[in-house]
Amino acid sequence: MNTPMIRKVLTLFRDDVALMSTRVSLSAVPDGHKVQEGDEKTTTGTYKVDWRNANSIAHLSLHISYPNAADTANAAALGVSAGGNIMIHGIANGWGALGKLHRYWDWTNGYIAVTNDEMKQIWALMQDGTPIEITE
C-alpha cells in the first residue's frame, strides 16, 4: 500500500551544486529496478536525457535512455522485453490543476512525475545528453 504524500525526491545538480529539488510520484510499483516491459517499475541506474517531447500526453516530457546495454542483456537473459519510453514529465494534459496533490500516490507507468511548474524548470535546466542517476 502506498504511503500518503510520496517521499521520493528528484534533485538536479550542476557541478555538485544542487539547482533544485522536488518530490515526485513514481510508478504503481515504485520499489526495485525495472526489469521488463509492463512491470510498472521506475528504472534505477545511470542514464541520460536523450530526447524531449514538447507535445506529449503529459505536460512536457524528457526521455530517459532506458534501456541501457545491461538492461537489455538482463531482459534477454530472462526472455522478456526490457520495455522503454521512460520519461520525466509533468501532470497528464487536462489534469494540471491537481498540482502537488498528484504526490499523494504513485500513479505512473514507470515514469517520474512532477508538477507542471516544476517540469518547466526541469525542461529549462536539463539539456539533451544530461547524465542522470536514478537511485532508490
Structural commentary:
This protein has 136 residues and is of the alpha+beta class. The chain is built from 2 helices and 7 strands, in the order E-E-E-E-H-E-E-H-E. The protein has helices at residues 69-78, 116-125; strands at 9-14, 17-23, 45-53, 61-64, 86-89, 112-113, 131-134. A 5-stranded mixed β-sheet has the order 6-5-4-3-7. It has a two-stranded antiparallel sheet with strand order 1-2. It is globular. The model is unreliable at 1-6 (pLDDT under 50).
Number of strands: 7
Shape: globular
Structural class: alpha+beta
Helix/strand order, N-terminal first: EEEEHEEHE
Could you estimate the helical fraction of the residues in percent?
A: 10-25%
Mind summarizing the main beta sheet?
5 strands, mixed
CA-CA gap between termini: 17 Å
Show unreliable segments: 1-6
Strand order of the largest sheet: 6-5-4-3-7
Supply database-style keywords.
single chain; 136 residues; alpha+beta; two-stranded antiparallel ribbon; 2 helices; 15% helix; 26% strand
In short:
This protein has helices spanning 69-78, 116-125; strands at 9-14, 17-23, 45-53, 61-64, 86-89, 112-113, 131-134. It is of the alpha+beta class.
Produce the secondary structure layout.
Elements: E1 9-14, E2 17-23, E3 45-53, E4 61-64, H1 69-78, E5 86-89, E6 112-113, H2 116-125, E7 131-134
Parallel strand pairs: 5-6
Antiparallel strand pairs: 1-2, 3-4, 3-7, 4-5
